[in-house]
Amino acid sequence: MTLIDWYVEGIDFGNCNCDWGCPCQFESLPSQGNCCGFEALEITRGHFGKTDLTGLRTAIIYAWPGPIFEGNGEMQVIIDERANAEQRKALETILHGGETQEATTHWWVFHAMSKTVHETLFKPIEFECDIEARAARVHIPGILESKGEPIRSPATGAFHRVRIDIPNGIEFEIAEIGSASTQATGKIRLDLMNSYGQFSRLRHSGTGVVHWSRSHPVRTRLAVEHGKLPIRFRGFLPIWLLQRTS
């Protein structure tokens, strides 16, 4: 079956109830035994067929009684109220795992593992996120409030920086990890305090995560050699490669 051509790239922030080093990212069991949280996304470039998705925001709230892979979860998609009818339908399809190869995005997995899929909401979504600074704020009136910040050393109080690199994952390539707190009061309630916060640049299509360095190998090599690698990508390359840009 031919899938509709789609692509979504943007700034992504999420918070779940796991400890800062979320075991789920390492194919282990969640810190508290169950999994609940949310993610918010601001699309910097995107389309679904001929429908432009650039500039829109989305959020997903989710919960499972155990690990995600055991299923029986629930989820709810929230879409930017500024989206028109075509954009709403497109984003709902993508975030429910539609027009996507099996198990190639975390959205597909979330939907497949959810016994209950609550009605999609269309709300204003206030979203601020600085990936490198590990700072974020999300406000969805009447639904959710969240804040992300850097991890602080318990010994010195200094900011601690750590990343997770998953070359063949279904969600991101590299994520900055921080601390986050979230309260949600809708169909799925959250009360998270200083737990796992994730800040990343997300790139998805119907075939899974789009790897920038793999899909643009010549551009990456030339940019590095000539010291013109865009700033937004410098945080996603190894130190030895970045040294060639200085």
Supply the key terms:
single chain, 246 residues, alpha+beta, 2 domains, 14-stranded mixed β-sheet, two-stranded antiparallel ribbon, 6 helices, globular, disordered C terminus
**Number of beta strands:** 16
Q: What form results from the Cα inertia axes?
A: globular
Q: What share of the residues does DSSP label as strand, in percent?
A: 35-45%
Largest sheet features: 14 strands, mixed
Supply the number of structural domains.
Answer: 2
What is the C-alpha radius of gyration, as a whole number of Å? 18 Å
Integer average pLDDT: 89
Alpha carbon gap, first and last residue: 47 Å
Helix content: 10-25%
Structure commentary:
The chain has 246 residues and is α+β, with helices and mostly antiparallel strands. It has 2 domains: 6-210, no CATH class; 212-246, no CATH class. 16% of the residues lie in helices and 43% in strands. It has 6 helices and 16 strands. The strands form 2 sheets. Strands 1, 2, 3, 4, 5, 6, 7, 8, 9, 10, 13, 14, 15 and 16 form a 14-stranded mixed β-sheet that branches. A hairpin with an 8-residue loop joins β13 and β14 (174-185). The radius of gyration is 18 Å and the shape is globular. The termini are far apart.
